[in-house]
Amino acid sequence: MFASQFMPCSECGASVERSASHAHQCDPARRVDFRMFAMRAEIAEIEDRIVEYLESPPGRFESWVAARDLRSRKT
């Protein structure tokens, strides 16, 4: 088996040549995308929890209050 010439950056996931890894600088946008991808399960769980909360009596009440406040601001 042979060793790859390229390895993924642990911070942004970019394919970086081993001999040039010391000179690699992560692109901030790529770093954010890479971290969001790594957190996809947690993000999906948060979305599920928000939906669950908004369907509960306290969540429905907060939604109603928010909608009422928005309507009162428009007038």
**Low-pLDDT windows of residues:** none
Tell me, rounded to a whole number, the average pLDDT: 92
Q: Percent helix among the residues?
A: 55-70%
Number of strands: 2
Question: What is the string of SSEs from the N terminus onward?
Answer: EEHHH
Taking Cα atoms only, what radius of gyration do you get, to the nearest Å?
22 Å
Largest sheet: 2 strands, antiparallel
Helical run tally:
3
CA distance, first residue to last residue: 72 Å
How is this structure best described in words?
The chain has a two-stranded antiparallel ribbon with strand order 1-2. The chain has two domains: 1-38, no CATH class; 40-75. The protein starts with 5 loop residues before the first strand and ends with a helix. It contains three helices and two strands; from the N terminus they run E-E-H-H-H. By secondary structure, it is mainly alpha-helical. The radius of gyration is 22 Å and the shape is elongated.
Draw up the topology in text:
Layout: E1 6-8, E2 15-17, H1 28-38, H2 40-54, H3 57-74
